[in-house]
Batch of 3 targets.
Target 1
Amino acid sequence: MAAAAAAAEGPDPGSVALEVASVSVNYGQFVAVESATFSVGAGECVAVIGPNGHGKSSMVTAVAGLVRRGGTVRVFGTALPVGDPRAAVRAGLVLVPERRHLYPQLTTRDNIMLGSYSHTRRVWARQAWAEVAGVLDMFPELAPLLDQKAGTLSGGQQQMVALARGMAARPKILMLDEPCLGLAEVVTHRVYDWLGAMTATDMTIVLVEENPVHALRVCHRAVRMYRGLVEQPAGEAGPDGPGPDGPGPDGPGAVSA
């Protein structure tokens, strides 16, 4: 499948791709993430679910190195430095952020190519595009829009550009933060069809999603984030050891698909 070819070489089956251990995020005096601990196996698709405003976006942003954090993040056993997104990308961890964050004055083609910058920055633009053009196999609707400015695209088209940009980076671990936020239902189905296809490859996926019904359509399991906390379900060991005895009626927990 072309989508699988766009990613980096597959990980060893059974290995742990991502370990998040006691990660915390503060914005001044405000505690956005009190403690997040979970792990994701290689090739696994895990959803992070929970209400809005409970730290999901802050957590994945910190894991990607875009904000400072406490705790430890390991990618295939290697600890990532705090606040260094370049190290995360070099390790193969890529975040597609909430609300897309495209450059509106750049073309669709240029926005996609920015995803490949870490491995194409020393080659001519024509060659660089040739190396990443395969991402259009996932979203052929973008082919006639390559020379159109991203700011003139619809919300659904912009989300496809953001996903294609993430794939152009050849991720081993792809984190998606609310990829369908604000999109029409028909576009949401299109994105989730793509996600379903991705789960059949060896890519590791972390999906932040408020709606557990959508998330569990494609993910192998989910962890729940509540009031800045992610906890393991009863009997499951996290990166730092056994999980708690289980969630209370309103507390965090985990579910399986």
Note: The domain at 2-256 is CATH 3.40.50.300 (Rossmann fold).
Target 2
Amino acid sequence: MLRFISAAAVVSLPPVRVRRARPAAWVSGLAAVLSLLLPVAVYADAAPQRVISTDAAITEIVIALGAADRLVGVDDTSELSADQEGLPRLGYHRALSGEGLLSLRPDQLLVSEHAGPPQALAPLQAAAVPVLRLPGAYDVAQLKSNIRLIAAALALPQAGEQLLEDIDNRVERIHRYAPPVAPRAVLLRESNGQLRVAGRDSAGNALLALLGAENAVDYSGYRSFTAEGLLALNPELLVIADEALPAAEQWLNRFPLLRYSRAAEAQTVISVHSRALVGGLSLTALSEAQRLLALMTQAQQAAAP
């Protein structure tokens, strides 16, 4: 920490005899001027310049705030532009290495509530590296809260306010085109060969809510279903998460029973990129919601007599 001598201390110093009077007079004069110009000095910690993000949704926010150049490492789920692909990858966010994190000499670590294991983060806390742990965003309110916290940690309040305003505008447009009556909906993805359906407290459920839909299931997280079980839910809207888009027709071919659902009959089987569901409700999820609503509108217009 820097230490400063007050103007009063300078004045109270005993006189010192020197041979050259002019330089001494010049120094004392400069001190007097500085004491008048800077009666009070306020010093703030410098904004973090070496940031690690271990969550895809958090990385998106950092980039949207205009701080991509501060990133020195990200987790494997984070999406980067071509000119950022050289950044070190730190592995899966639940299996981080404390040594790997420290080797990048970060001055700010941004992690989700699922980051770990705990022993991987302990060395950073011991080294006094600030660690901001953020909850998963499963609604717009939490997404905005996370944006505020990240903007504050990076000392980017103005960029944060601009991003929040953009979020409000996008959500307003999404709500404007949402269906007047909430369709009964299912969000479906595949994991290790099993069909998984999104329940409450999941990014899938958050996306359905953005679309103005009512989730057909009422449990927390994801559960496995058979094709027969999915047909029993008989959704009016079926959203399929996949890495290759469009995926709707491929899934209906693989699981032909789904063709007998109300969603298939109404041609409201649509696909969302699975990366939009990584890390909770994200900026990518908002973009996907806008795209999906456009597809739903087209389907409704095509079905209209």
Note: The two ends are 75 Å apart (CA to CA).
Target 3
Amino acid sequence: MRKWFFLAAILLLGWWVLAHWRAMGWPAGQRSQADSLLRTLAPVLDQVMPPSQYPTAEILAIIYPEMLRYSPLQDGVEQEVNRRLYARHNLTEEVDFSTGWFQMKPSFAERLEWYYRAVLPQHPCALDFVYTETDSVTRRLARLARLADPRWQLVYLRGFYHVVNHRFPQLATYPALKRVRLMALAYNVGFQRPEDSLWRWEKVKHFPHGSMAKLMGELNTHSYADLAEEFYMRTCDLTTSVPPQTRAPAPLLKTGGCSSASTTD
């Protein structure tokens, strides 16, 4: 197992170097990749979350900043470390690398699955998170396999949408942009936090480097909520209040859930 700890250390160092290099043109340089991935997802998105039933523009805004951060090479290495250490050696606290296009962590999936078991067992989405695997290792491996599958990530995203609306029923009364920003913060910081704790992160420029932002010298860091808002406004072709350097032109997809509201008040 020692070699996998060594690999994890090399991965962290490599991540720092790669992140420093990518940050020079981030996020503009990653938009074309993220947009391409979303277009690939469009047919599956319509099946998992039909626009007639879900505000897909709002929901996609939640994960779009993570898609900007996604790197296929880095993702492949992190998935293997997750399989070796998180799944097979039960290092669930020490190893928790983000996975897939939406950069979902195993801990995120576990919290979501627990919420449906403990709080919303009768919700239709609860059936999505039932496992047939009986032992913990195969169940963790199955969870990682799900997180590596874009369709399953959409299923988890749909589950997250229902959970966050259950946790914060006041979302239904908020203007569109305020909803987008709060749901994005809950995804990025943790839906288990109370609302006032989430809002404290609204203007914090820590993305995409997270806790390493200061080590990176805060090089080209952004507010996660700002990036989510930019995507929503671009998709719905609305005027945005986000600073010009973080904007991107042209609507991306035809989605449901666009609102003419352009304020968060």
Note: The longest strand covers residues 205-207.
